[in-house]
Amino acid sequence: METLTSLCASQALVSHTARPMPISAAGSSISAKGYACSIKSRAFPPRKQRASVVKAAVAVEQQTEKPKVALIRIGTRGSPLALAQAHETREKLMAAHSELAEEGAIEIVIIKTTGDKILSQPLADIGGKGLFTKEIDEALINGDIDIAVHSMKDVPTYLPEQTILPCNMDREDVRDAFISLNASSLADLPAGSIIGTASLRRKSQILHRYPSLKVVENFRGNVQTRLRKLNEGVVHATLLALAGLRRLNMTENVTATLSIDDMLPAVAQGAIGIACRSNDDKMAEYLASLNHEETRLAVTCERAFLLTLDGSCRTPIAGYASRDENGDCLFKGLVASPDGTRVLETSRKGPYAIDDMILMGKDAGKELLSRAGPGFFNS
């Protein structure tokens, strides 16, 4: 019926979905189910011509249909773990907002970062952790994406202008996993065993406790790459964040989980951060629905500690804030010499509130800076 009406208006009175109706001479009228139009001084074209007119009208209609534009474009790295985190973000947004549950409402945009491209050198030699976020931040500022999903431990302590990071999702397990084909723990590894890691934090803590072991620093690549190298015998063991293995459903590879006392985690380990433009109130509103405040406060405390120490990939630093059984914040911080010969630790306890936790992180950082003295991180 709708086809018939539109064709009446264009004087090509044919419906390709209905049976042909009797046609009278020019100047008559035609109606169907209450819809009518007049034909004045024009006879119908031949059947073949009428069919081509209908096809052309349908083609024009299809061409003028606009493709569905995503309401949110999520920017992420392309590693399996980064994509798992982006998909987790998308699923939670869809669950929280009905308009985002429609097909095509959320698009995931993969952005290759410098940190992903250069794998042959240690991060410290090519610019540090910001290399995993720089290109994504640029895409956000330029409007190519609407939000950016990061592993918080990869995010520098500064944020680029025009961006905010208002959301930390519920934190995963912060501990490190020990993985080996022939040893049940670090203590069981024979002297001279080689451990692969890209983290100075892990290297320094391993060598501090087990100086007879050897650590290969530039053991880089995604989780799958590192496990492949382990299986190929490049190293005898490796350490990976348990959070990443859990998000990838790969915990069957874990030989043992290290306690916080044995291996203090990286600042913000296990936490996902989501950034948006500072002037984008709609995205900030969406992200507010995903924010886990307990995680956000803990990460803020740890990053205040890191900022005070001016930490980088050349600096072995660890920090962890958690809520104790009384609801207070317990913070533990650590700095180490790169070779693991010296490790300095401290702790703080106070109210689980943003201002108090920032002060705890800063104060702990100042204490360790004072105790470490000049040249400590160059040893």
TrEMBL record:
Pathway: Porphyrin-containing compound metabolism; chlorophyll biosynthesis; Porphyrin-containing compound metabolism; protoporphyrin-IX biosynthesis; coproporphyrinogen-III from 5-aminolevulinate: step 2/4
Keyword Protease: no
Xref: PROSITE patterns: PORPHOBILINOGEN_DEAM
Domain Porphobilinogen deaminase C-terminal: 297-369
Domain of life: Eukaryota
The protein's name in its UniProt record: Porphobilinogen deaminase, chloroplastic
Domain Porphobilinogen deaminase N-terminal: 72-284
Summary of the function given for this chain in its UniProt record: Tetrapolymerization of the monopyrrole PBG into the hydroxymethylbilane pre-uroporphyrinogen in several discrete steps.
E.C. numbers: 2.5.1.61
Cofactors (names): dipyrromethane
GO molecular function list: hydroxymethylbilane synthase activity
Segment forming the signal sequence: none
Subcellular location: Plastid, Chloroplast
Family as reported in the entry's similarity comment: Belongs to the HMBS family.
InterPro entries: HemC (IPR000860), Porphobilin_deaminase_cofac_BS (IPR022419), Porphobilin_deaminase_N (IPR022417), Porphobilinogen_deaminase_C (IPR022418), Porphobilinogen_deaminase_C_sf (IPR036803)
Alphabetized UniProt keyword annotations: Chlorophyll biosynthesis, Chloroplast, Plastid, Porphyrin biosynthesis, Transferase
Species assigned in the record: Linum trigynum
UniProt entry tagged with the keyword Transferase: yes
GO cellular component, one term: chloroplast
Gene Ontology terms: biological process: chlorophyll biosynthetic process; heme biosynthetic process
Main localization (coarse): plastid
